[in-house]
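To fix ideas, we reproduce below one chain and its tokenised fold.
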Amino acid sequence: MKKSSSSGQQNSTFIQRLLQRVNIKRVKWSEVYLATAGALHRLLVEGRRKRAAVKRQQQDMPLSELKSLKLEPGDIVYTPSSESTYYAGHMGIIGLDGKVYHVHPYGPVFADTLDWYLTRFYEGDRFIVFRSKLHQVGDRAAEWVQEHYKQVKFYRLQTNLLSVERNYCSKFIYQAYKFTSGLDLWGRKFAKLKQGFIYPFRIERSSDLDVLGTFYK
């Protein structure tokens, strides 16, 4: 019995040593992989982003200029893809009261002062301000968001473009213009297509909007 127990212990010790060696090799390979992946990411992704950010900051105005800009009802404040927007982009619309109305995952909807709205974003984020080419159109959209923002009950990436209750930032702004003036910021025929996703970049590309300025934080 003692010999058998001793033999079992030796086998167990041998297996433990073997597994330990395997784990050490795995750790070493993991370290090599992480170091290589990190170097490639810094070279191909982070470096390009930093260069692009520097270039934008040379072209854009500081955030203080945005705060002093006289925004009008219906103006759209858009932040392109970044960490603070979960790499999806985010946008809000100016109401008749000067507040920024925006549908948000933690809201589901907020009515922020411009100063408070801008604190939601990180240093280095960019802001693009758009205005409708038709003044009355923006006023009507601003009035609509103030009257309907409390109807938003859930933050959902829903395809039904008629639903106000289940909403997200760019869809809410799209509805404000479409429901009040018939202006289609998506650029597709709404009468035939009532389903789809209104991504922020679709509104960014709308030919019905003028760019007032670009700013960085």
